Model the fold of this input.
Amino acid sequence: MKFTDNVITGRQNPTVLRVHKLREKKFRDAERVFLLDGYKLFMEARQKKADIVKVYLCETLYEKLPCDVIGIISKEYSDRTVVLSESCFMKISDEKAPQGIIAEINHLDKWKLFTKIYNDEISSNERILLLDSIQDPGNMGTILRSGAAFGIDRIICGGSCADITNPKVLRASMGAALSLNVDYVSDTALAIEKLTSLGRRVFSAELKSDSVRLSDIEILGSDVFFIGNEGKGIPEHLSVLCSDSVFIPMTDKTESLNAGVAASVCLWTQYSKLL
Done:
């Protein structure tokens, strides 16, 4: 099927200007929508039954999309499809080499971006990961992807963590972000206190004089790993609230692991012991 009617060609067109603004967090928050760039993320959103509001296609690129993707758009989203000229599409895309499709998605209820205090709505069998000030979108996306791969149900984000609706976060997560409950909280200390009051152990991942080797602890499914900022790590006032600190053994050829890698190692270790 060819989508050739009513192609938007003006870069100052209201639709183009609006979608371009959605590249900024404040506009995504205001409209409670976000963008997924690329056909794989579009297919992930459809598979996970996300509310796809609009599909934007590039006039010169969309015919190169896989046939099954074109077929799905034609059958299920033709009334919500907008075709843009290449120039207009490049204005709304965050990719250097876009695939020719961007989906606009309504905000997911499982993403609580405006939580002011940590809520108690977690079940006893939920697997949880705690983050504080993970600022790099690539790291955030990697952590989300690893979390989904290793059985995490909920990620609690304190401090100034990267926005989950950031296109770079969503791209790095490879769609895994759509599967997870994500709470953004204003008080990481309160989150730790709430978790420990529910009988959960919170392990800060950091190298301290009394840190325990990761492989030496008996990890339970209810245990929560805590990953801190890429450069500054975990603040002392948060570290002292944790049940214990763990470290990942490594050679002396490097000082530390990337935050995304450290989280992945901790989560894999927990997952492997629960198998």
User: Anything to note?
Assistant: The mean pLDDT is 94. Residues 111-274 form a domain with the Alpha/beta knot fold (CATH 3.40.1280.10). The two ends are 47 Å apart (CA to CA). The chain has ten helices and twelve strands.
